[in-house]
Design brief:
Elements: H1 10-23, H2 46-55, E1 66-72, E2 75-82, E3 87-95, H3 102-108, H4 111-118, E4 123-133, E5 138-147, E6 150-162, E7 165-174, H5 178-188
Antiparallel strand pairs: 1-2, 2-3, 3-7, 4-5, 5-6, 6-7
């Protein structure tokens, strides 16, 4: 029995992608591992799915990106991988049954949770800065990290879509290709591409 592509777990796709990249001797970071401090029981809608599908259209050179989207009852995760440049963009839209709380948000995006859960596949994770655009309901956390002895810069945006939806977008790119990473950040979030 072959898996249904709309319910195939994103972590299996990511694992298979990483195995392929390692076999090709490429280095590329992994997507953050989702964890929860509040139960997700909301329902994915057609608008959520459309957002995930259209998000990758903002990436420069769209044909160069491999896309994987997984859907569960209360979450959409999508990964765009540019193997030649060792760049990953990851979107995770979580849908809650009830409005999330500030306490939940504070715990989920704590330094400890970034280190132990959200960015646990990276080594030497160091927070470089954080900033926000209140009107856009958008936060950005900037990190440096290492993957397989290569230094990466990681941009981690948090978009508070509404009171039951939070969307995380992660961009990880090699530090030695900062121009490409900056161009992608600008294309994805022109209102907040970095914390300068």
């Amino acid at each position: 029995m072959s898996p249904n592509p709309t319910s195939w777990p994103w972590h299996r796709t990511l694992f298979l992608l990483l195995a392929l990249i390692l076999a090709c001797n490429q280095t590329i970071p992994t997507s953050p591992q989702p964890t929860e401090t509040q139960i997700l029981l909301g329902q994915v809608t057609e608008q959520d799915l459309a957002r995930a599908r259209s998000f990758g259209e903002e990436l420069p050179d769209p044909e160069a990106w491999e896309t994987n989207i997984s859907i569960t009852e209360n979450r959409i995760a999508a990964t765009w991988t540019h193997t030649a440049k060792s760049i990953v963009v990851y979107l995770d839209r979580r849908i809650y049954a009830e409005p999330y709380t500030e306490d939940t948000v504070a715990r989920y995006y704590s330094r400890k949770n970034f280190r132990e859960a959200l960015l646990r596949d990276y080594e030497d994770v160091r927070l470089l800065g954080q900033c926000k655009r209140s009107k856009a309901k958008l936060r950005l956390y900037e990190f440096s990290a290492h993957v397989w002895e290569r230094e990466y810069l990681v941009r981690y945006w948090v978009h508070f879509v509404d009171d039951t939806r939070i969307e995380d977008v992660v961009l990880a790119f090699p530090k030695d290709d900062k121009d490409t990473g900056e161009a992608i950040a600008q294309a994805l979030f022109p209102a907040l591409p970095h914390c300068r």
